[in-house]
Design brief:
The chain is mostly beta strands. The chain folds into two domains: about 55 residues, no CATH class; about 325 residues, TolB, C-terminal domain (Neuraminidase). Helix content is about 10%, strand content about 45%. The chain has six helices and 26 strands. The strands form six sheets. Strands 4, 5, 6, 7 and 8 form a five-stranded antiparallel sheet that branches. Strands 13, 14, 15, 16 and 17 form a five-stranded antiparallel sheet that branches. The radius of gyration is 22 Å and the shape is globular. The two termini are about 25 Å apart. The relative contact order is 0.13. This is F-box domain-containing protein.
Length: about 400
């Protein structure tokens, strides 16, 4: 950062400006926002200097916070489910203090519902999609929320997707990530056609969508694209899902579709070698603690998780654990959803998607603890890092 970007800082007579900026870049957002009142130059630095925003993001702890999606049940007044995206510390969840999370103050909470759902989190921004179905056309808009700043953007330009004949589900999958080469945040939509999947991209702040790719692969599963190292990653079928006989799908048909946001190209990554049987319905990907993880339910009796130790290197797949449903103290009818890991990665929290509560599992000590949530479902969780990135 050049000297002219931060001239006349109040402490410049005591400490060098560069040191003052380095100190400020390591301060939590809540305190930093209060420091804007110190002077006009500090306010300008904290609120409007893009180099300082990047420096603060670089120095912010990367595995401390979480966006947790909590379903509080049916809203009797509006006849709709009350689902909240809540910004919280992971340690609160790991300490089994769910009540303090559910009762978070309004400024750290965003209400979502069946027509308004998360697409992903990246660099302090959370992307939400709202949709409206009109006949056979799905109209979607996207907004960006920074819970640390308590700011949310206006709606993006509309995206229109035609439903496929006879298919009641949405023919699209979504992802949200950051292209460092252009300093751009991008929403990616993959739309299944009768023969190929097409990819459309919207860059935050722009007024249009553009089509970038067409190919036969199609992502599956309930989770959106997982952002890691400049790429979005989905578990996918190796050809168009519309042409599959699902009764014949095996592990050999599954790949990881990895989209490079800078080059706008893709490649296929292999799943761990030696897999014999994997259920497509109960398998998926999740970025946990900065690593791409592949998890699945094996033969209806065990939960299995693998971790790619070096992203993009298929030989680096390592099985973290395999644990029986009996040891989890849980009769699983639906897949578990990993929410987060501890800082050292030894402990993982998993939502029980067909029951109230979650599971805290220390895979090093093989110890299981249950989280009770007082009749509230934990739907999902996403890693979150505090930032000053403006959701515009």
């Amino acid at each position: 950062m050049e000297t002219g970007d931060h001239a006349q800082l109040p402490l410049s007579g005591i400490l060098p400006d560069e040191l003052v900026i380095e100190i400020l870049s390591r301060i939590p957002i809540k305190s930093l926002l209060q420091f804007r009142c110190v002077s006009k130059s500090w306010k300008s630095l904290i609120s409007h200097n893009p180099q300082f925003v990047k420096l603060h993001l670089h120095n912010s702890p990367k595995n401390d916070n979480l966006i947790l999606f909590v379903n509080k049940g049916l809203d009797e007044e509006e006849d709709d489910f009350d689902i909240r995206a809540i910004y919280c510390s992971k340690q609160t969840l790991l300490d089994n203090n769910i009540s303090s999370i559910v009762n978070a103050e309004d400024g750290r909470c965003f209400v979502v519902n069946d027509t308004n759902w998360s697409v992903g989190s990246c660099n302090g921004l959370v992307c939400f999609r709202s949709h409206l179905v009109n006949n056979e056309v799905i109209e979607s808009h996207f907004r960006f929320w920074n819970p640390a700043l308590r700011l949310i953007s206006k709606k993006s330009p509309a995206l229109y997707v035609n439903k496929l004949p006879g298919d009641p589900f949405s023919p699209a999958r979504y992802g949200f990530g950051y292209d460092s080469s252009s300093d751009t945040y991008k929403v990616v939509v993959m739309i299944l056609g009768l023969e190929n999947t097409i990819v459309k991209v919207h860059s935050m702040g722009e007024s249009c969508w553009k089509e970038i790719l067409s190919f036969p692969t199609f992502p599956i599963g309930e989770l959106d694209g997982q952002f890691l190292n400049g790429t979005l990653n989905w578990l996918a079928l190796d050809k168009s899902g519309y042409g599959y006989d699902w009764r014949t799908v095996t592990v050999n048909h599954l790949v990881i579709f990895s989209l490079d946001l800078e080059k706008e190209t893709y490649r296929h990554l292999s799943l761990p070698a030696g897999l014999v049987e994997v259920s497509c319905v109960e398998s998926n990907l999740k970025v946990l603690g900065g690593y791409l993880c592949f998890f699945f339910h094996y033969r209806g009796t065990h939960f299995v998780m693998w971790q790619m130790k070096e992203f993009g290197v298929e030989m680096s797949w390592t099985q973290l654990f395999i644990i029986s449903d009996q040891h989890l103290q849980f009769d699983i009818d639906h897949p578990l959803i990993p929410l987060c890991t501890s800082e050292n990665g030894d402990v993982i929290v998993m939502a029980r998607t067909d029951d109230f509560g979650a599971i805290i599992y220390n895979w090093k000590s093989n110890r299981v603890e249950l989280i009770e949530t007082n009749n509230e479902f934990l739907e999902n969780g996403e890693d979150y890092v505090e930032s000053l990135v403006f959701p515009g």
